Amino acid sequence: MTAEMPEPASPSTPSPLIVPVLAFCGMVVAVMQTLVVPLLPHIPELTGASPGAAGWLVTITLLTGAVFTPVLGRVGDMYGKRRVLLASLGVLTAGSVLCAITSDIGLLITGRALQGAALAVIPLGISIIRDELPAERVLSSIALMSSTLGIGAAIGLPVAAVVIENFDWHTMFWASAALGLLDLLLVLWIVPESPLRSPGQFDLPGTVGLAATLVGFLLAITQGADWGWTSPRTLGLFGASLVIGLLWGRYELRTASPMVDLRVSARPAVLLTNVAALLIGFAFYANSLVTGQMVQEPTSTGYGLGASIVVSGLCLLPGGLAMVALSPVSARISATYGPRTALGLAAVVMAVGYVVRFFTSHSLWAIVAGATVVASGTAIAYSALPALVMRAVPVSETGAANGLNTLMRSVGQACCSAVVAAVLAHVTFLAGGHTAPTLHAYLLIFLIAAGAALAALVATLCLPSDRTAPGVSGGTVVLSGPLSAARESA
């Protein structure tokens, strides 16, 4: 006797599993961003590659994620979000398999590039949620979906550390491939395709121009510390990205169907939200970058705890769990008081978390507590940002607009990585015969991150009021898409 699989829900009745499935996809994709971080110190001996080449296992995911996220968001708006979501998950799975079957650094970097390109899953998932769910479920659902970017990053580090400590390092890539395949099957079964399409033709010149601008800028940011900030290579990339970016912007303003609608993006409600996203991304990433390294510093430094890779990764796990728990709370805050208020509160919480970290960096429990406070603020921020974007752009541009907002978070993370690397490399002393960052280096990073959070607060306060913004009525945000609105009217 064979078991019968339940029939997927019809398009007119959205399945209750849509949000869990999309959130699971988002977390798997987010895990890919930090998956190899615990492995990086061992890559040279495992593959015979140089430390510089090993660093590209992280850099390349940042580059491909930044390029493909806004592009695939736009493609999803034009040709079908579910279709592009499936393609992204297929690319992630292929990249994971490639990494699992090789120890060649070139192929590993290629596989990691494919994994990074799947970051577009998160804005695509947000767009699908807006299209498919009734209004009363949209805010809480996009809050969870958006938070998966931080949740996955926090969970990925300790899980990867445990796998590396106890199994062959290829195992984590096989597990990634299995999760990617599971995501594909779940989306095929549960998630419907929205008939909503954005009109126009695909903007190939705009896509190439955007990619060249982003790659030049992000390469200069991520490699500037190694190449030298005043080296011809770094300055040349900054200059080239500036020139290409200006030419790209001029072209986008003149074309009938642009990759990025700069007129919409220049609206204060959209522009300031993206600025806030960049600053929040900066503040969030500092927490992830320095927590593990700080507790792993040897006790000879006078402040380090000499913790193992696994323990250092577990320090971020409470923050990841807090983000899961706070997603519905942050959605309730946005629904009751408006997403602008929620984002302002988040920025304050993140700044307070770094103040806590500044004064309590000598014991493990205090470090975990401070990191969790920062993560809690991040959860509220990441939940509010999509709501701010979607109330300010046409429904047909939801995927592209959320892709651009996710891109701004990634740019903020790239800038944070460069700043953290520069501070830890230059504010050092001799401890136990080895050069190590001083405690003041870490405290300086906390102050810079707190400053970024407060700058995000300033940008948020300049946004239109929650009660006067489009899509907000009496403090309640209305984000239902045309499909959910049609269901309600029926």
By DSSP (H or I, 4+ residues per run), the number of helices equals 19
| Percentage of β-strand residues | under 5%
The dominant shape is: globular
H-E string: HHHHHHHHHHHHHHHHHEEHEEH
Return residue spans where pLDDT drops below 50 for at least 5 consecutive residues: 1-11, 472-476, 483-490
Helix content: over 70%
Sheet/helix structural class: mainly alpha
Mean pLDDT figure: 83
Radius of gyration: 22 Å
| Spatial gap, N to C terminus | 40 Å
| Overall strand count | 4
Topology:
Elements: H1 18-34, H2 43-47, H3 51-79, H4 81-100, H5 105-117, H6 121-132, H7 135-166, H8 171-190, H9 204-227, H10 232-254, H11 262-265, H12 268-296, H13 309-314, H14 317-337, H15 339-359, H16 364-390, H17 398-426, E1 428-431, E2 434-437, H18 439-461, E3 472-473, E4 476-477, H19 482-489
Antiparallel strand pairs: 1-2, 3-4
Helix pairs in contact: 1-6, 1-7, 1-8, 3-4, 3-5, 3-9, 3-17, 4-5, 4-6, 4-8, 6-7, 6-17, 7-14, 7-16, 9-10, 9-17, 12-16, 12-17, 12-18, 14-15, 14-16, 15-16, 15-18, 16-17, 17-18
Question: Which terms would index this structure?
Answer:
two-stranded antiparallel sheet; 74% helix; mainly alpha; disordered C terminus; 19 helices; 490 residues; disordered N terminus
Explained architecture:
By secondary structure, the chain is mostly helical. It has 19 helices and 4 strands. It has helices spanning 18-34, 43-47, 51-79, 81-100, 105-117, 121-132, 135-166, 171-190, 204-227, 232-254, 262-265, 268-296, 309-314, 317-337, 339-359, 364-390, 398-426, 439-461, 482-489, and strands spanning 428-431, 434-437, 472-473, 476-477. The strands form 2 sheets. It has a two-stranded antiparallel sheet with strand order 1-2. Strand 1 and strand 2 form a beta hairpin. The radius of gyration is 22 Å and the shape is globular.
